[in-house]
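Incident review: delayed structure delivery

Summary: a single-chain prediction request sat in the queue longer than the usual turnaround. Root cause was a stuck worker, restarted by the on-call engineer. No data loss occurred. The affected request and its eventual output are reproduced below so the record is complete for anyone auditing the incident later.

Affected input:
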Amino acid sequence: MKRIIFLPLFIAVFMLQLNNKVNAQSNATIENIDFHIQNDTLWVTYDLLYSRQNELFNIGITITTASGKTIQPVSVSGDVGDKVNGGKGKKICWDVNKDRIVLSESIYVEVNAIIFEVRPTEISKISKDKYFHRGPALLLSAVVPGLGITKLNNGKPFWLMAVAFYGAAAGSYLYYNSADKTYDKYLVSEDENERNKLYSQAESQKTISTVLIYTAGAVWLGNMIWTAVHPNKTKPGTKEISLGTRWDESLRIAQLSIKYSF
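Output delivered after worker restart:
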């Protein structure tokens, strides 16, 4: 096989299509085109900026020699061809040796793009069978604090509020029993110092029990109010609707699509 001869000192780099719109239907631009040659491979880098998230592009590369000969690389890989997303740091690799091309003069590199596809942008897609009414949500929150809010939020773990509620309630009960037992010991004790100590301990345990039960009550009440006013994120619209656009390459126009699901 004939070896390719590169003359890098005489290769001119021309950045084509800088700051040019991909087409009238998109705000995307190709910028910062650059290339270098390494081990019989041409590496091209570029940025595809200002594109929308739902846009995909057909990226092509054209090589023009100083004498006017146009080369369409075949053995290319990377961010080239159909369905390329926008973004920075795009790379194209051309295996020049595999295409049996001899580069013996200056070359010009052009990267171009057209919209390959505009994927539909989903606006609303909530099925009616997932709708959870506020009444049952309030009932669930009354029994298990936070569970109703979880249902209204499509499963987010607000039910963890129940851990705080039941933990505070259980702690209040345990401290109440401890205070009661300590007070009984106080009543039967005949040592004055011990009685004073037991009475102080019983009062402290009773105070902690009261604080915990109020905490549990505040968690429960806050949970009920939150359930009553929280937006119901499972509530569907009248119909399931998807809106989107697509680029018709044959007609060269953008088309709007509307999908109804009954």
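Verification: The longest strand covers residues 107-118.
Action items: add queue-age alerting; document worker restart procedure.
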